[in-house]
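Intended use. Records like the one below are meant for learning the mapping from a protein sequence to its folded structure. Do not use them to infer anything beyond what is encoded.
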Amino acid sequence: MSIEAQSPAVPFTSVGDEERRVALRKMKMVATGLLLLAAVIFLGCVIWQRYDAPAWVGYVKATAEASMVGAIADWFAVTALFRHPMGVPIPHTAIIPRKKDQIGESLGEFVQSNFLTGPVLAEKLRQLGVSRKAGEFLSEPANARKLSGNVGRAITTGLEIMGDDDVQQVFDNIIMKRVRDADAAPILAKLIDVAVAGGNHQNMMTAGLKGVAKFLDENRQVLRVKLAQESPDWVPSWVDERIFNKIYSGVQSFIAEVAADENHEMRRQFDARVREYAEQLRTDPEAAAKIAAIKDDVLGHPAVREWSQSAWANIKRSLITMANDPDSDLRLQLESSILKLGTTLSNDPSLQAKVDGWVERGVLYVVDEYKDHIADLISGTVARWDTAETSKRIELQVGRDLQFIRINGTVIGALAGLVIYTISQIIG
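Structure written out for the chain above:
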């Protein structure tokens, strides 16, 4: 399948075209000026010979005559490349306009056969030392900072292009759906096993006991009032006070005892109950169903739905802010990673060899897969160019050098004419 060349009707015009146009015009004037000079000399010699001119005038005449022939012949040859000389449709002239499409095809085939080949590209890539040069570039702090800025702008652009509704839909369809479909009981059982193995459940129990003790201490007066309200009216207040103090001190003492003793019986019972519950989650369908119901209730809660809807907006806003801030953790981490990569590439020959191998294989694969398309692109692009404009552009690029052919033809023709005339005089 060939690639359609989406190119303009005329080739690209560079900023140096006007300079080339001026240089071409000057060289044409020089070449034409030499032709006119030869013509003037030739006519002068013809006129002079009618009035008993010296013998050496014949040599000058022959030289000028041959010079004109060479100049005209080379003018014809150069002009015939780009147009019909003097507008006359002489066969085999206007070669470039007439053969434009074939030139494009030949150029595409030439590039494909001589440049887009494995050995040529592989040798060039090895000479370049892509990984080493890339490492040297990336290890420069200024380059790393600039590149991190480019990555930051790319992140910002990508995030702004992404539709919030589409991302939210993906989030719901992938993440939330997987959470809903996941069996929570085995996961919770595994988490309990990990917590028990590390003794974290006992740490949680200790923290819970201390929290209860603090709660009781902060609400002692409230509890005392509550006991007084529940106590019969005929019980003296001092009796209530003694009863409350006894109960309160006993509870606080028990809590402190359990919290301080790692081998307390209550802790062993708690450990056994936790392990038993983890096993129950793995084997008891009823316990697993209760966990699944709790999970569904949590996921269906309006607060969770609101969080899932706002999560992406918050993440996006944070990422854009960090990507645009040169001193943010994201940008600084990017810069540090780039510097580290550059330093490693610059100093590690084995890594350079690996990266160069990856680059070489990647380039060769792409070229091997698409070299026909590249050739089609070249030929198709040239085919779309305007014929007359293409001829003008090519002449603008190489015409100045071609004018030297006219100049050389003028000079070489003059010398050849002089030699031929001299030989004829000697023989005659």
